[in-house]
Write a structure and sequence with these properties.
This protein has one helix at residues 2-16, and strands at 33-40, 54-58, 61-65, 78-85, 98-106. The chain is α+β, with helices and mostly antiparallel strands. The longest helix is centred in the first third of the chain and has 15 residues, at 2-16.
């Protein structure tokens, strides 16, 4: 009896706790991920060649983005985005967390 209950509990935990996949959450389109704009600092660009204007939180990871698509006019914290990884060159080539946002919309 204990084994049966333990098996049911384990099965429930394993099947019920799935990591959210890209575009599978509520109202997300295919390829979109839920993100949070955590910092907007347009002034840092003058002082730092490798700095980015936008800090984006995706899950537990933090990324930097240089700009948002021009079609996005409203700056809200919770957004849906599509993005690609960017590799910088020259002095900034060691920066690993840079992304280019290809689409963005409010959540």
């Amino acid at each position: 009896m204990k084994t049966l209950l333990l098996s049911i509990l384990l099965w429930t935990v394993v099947t019920g706790c799935k990591k959210s996949e890209v575009g599978s959450s509520m109202n997300g389109q295919p390829g979109e991920v839920a993100a949070v704009i955590t910092k907007i600092d347009l002034s840092s660009l003058a002082d730092c060649a490798c700095c980015a204007s936008y800090q984006i939180q995706i899950g537990s990871d933090t990324f930097q983005a240089d700009q948002l698509p021009v079609s996005f006019e409203t700056l809200t914290a919770n957004v849906w985005i599509k993005y690609d990884r960017r590799q910088l060159s020259g002095v900034c080539s060691q920066v690993q967390n840079r992304i280019g946002i290809t689409s963005i919309r409010n959540r």
